[in-house]
Structures are given as C-alpha cells and as structure tokens.
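Suppose you are handed only two things: the residues of a chain and a line of SMILES describing glutathione. What would the bound structure be? This form records exactly that question and the answer produced for it, so the two can be stored side by side and reused later without any lookup.

QUESTION INPUTS
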Amino acid sequence: MKLYTSPTSPFARKVRVVVREKNATSLVTEEVVVARQDPPALHAANPLGKIPALVLDDGTALFDSPVICEYLDATLPGPLLFPATGPARWQALRLQAAADGLMDAAVSIAYERMREEGERSPGAVERWSRSILRTLDFLEGEAPAFGDGPTIGTVAIGCALGYLDLRFDDLGWRGTRPVLDAFHKRLSTRPSFSETGPA
Ligand SMILES: N[C@@H](CCC(=O)N[C@@H](CS)C(=O)NCC(=O)O)C(=O)O
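ANSWER OUTPUT
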C-alpha cells in the first residue's frame, strides 16, 4: 500500500500512528507530497486533493483519514482501535469527530496565515480560535474517562494536540487543562507517537 502523507499533517499522522499501532510499517510505503502544489499523483488518488490518501495494492484509493484508519484497523491484525459495537464505539467516534474538527479549525488558521494580507479574514480566524478553545475545554472534561488502551478517538486527540504544539505554541493550552496535558504526555511516549512527531 502507498500512503500520500506529509510530516506536518495531523490527519496524515493519525494514519501513520494507526499503521504503527497495528505493527504494519512493512506493508505501507509513505510518500511525502505537498498538497498545495497540486501533485497529479495525489489528485489521481484523492479528487479532493487532500492528504492523507491510501492506495491499496489493487489500486483502489481510500480517503479521508477516518475511512483510511478504519480500513487499516479492520483489515490488519492486532487490538481494535475502532471498538466494534456499543457505547465504546460511539465514544471513540465522537472523540475522533471532536479532534478532527479541532484539526480542521487549526489547519484553516494556519492556511489563513499564509494568505496575502488583503485576503485574510480576521473574523473567520476569531471563530476558528473560539472553536478550538471550546473543544479543548470539552476534551479536558472527557479526559478522565479516556482509559489506557488507545482508540481512534484518543489517537486523533493526540494528533490534534501535537499539531497545536507545532503551530500554536503561544496558545498555552496545557496551563488550564491539566488532565488533557497528563494524557498527552503519556500518549507521546508510545512509539507510534514518538516515531511520527511533526517535523
Ligand atoms: N477530512 C480530511 C482532512 C484532510 C486535510 O485537510 N488535509 C490537509 C493537510 S493537513 C490538506 O491536504 N490540505 C490541502 C488543501 O486543502 O489544499 C481528512 O480527515 O483526511
């Protein structure tokens, strides 16, 4: 399988973490691309032109990150990151949705910063920033129940927080969110995270 990826994309990192949690690095070749340079190979795999995209050995291409992660989890051996049924499944998917939304808002702000002065929208940045802060508070409230074994929910949260550390160093999210901070520090010691840290 071939994964189109980038060292800084939090969405691609989710997939790279899942590959490692499933002990499957030998099955997935990672190809770094710059989505904003519109590489044809990425567009062939994902018409949306976004990273990550996974091309299977039969040529089928999968996107976006929740679909790729669930495919890998379902088809590779090892402990399940997507609980099969029941409340645990909905909790994992709910946390993944919160983390993915946080990433969306953070990536949107990062892109906004790259725009020319006259093309920027301070109002949109303000809304995305408030959404990030609300979601961090939500996650702080959920963190005592995260449990020890990783799920797709906690994997996605770890990637979202790592992206904040990379791009929003000045946010200081840890100060008022001690449970989330402790969770992130614990998660970061897993090889799947330490090997995929944003470059
Ligand atoms: N919902 C998508 C989001 C993927 C995404 O936004 N990727 C960014 C990189 S972090 C991207 O490729 N952006 C390129 C663009 O928007 O042109 C997923 O979960 O995979």
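WHAT STANDS OUT: Residues 52 and 64 are 6 Å apart (CA to CA). The radius of gyration is 17 Å.
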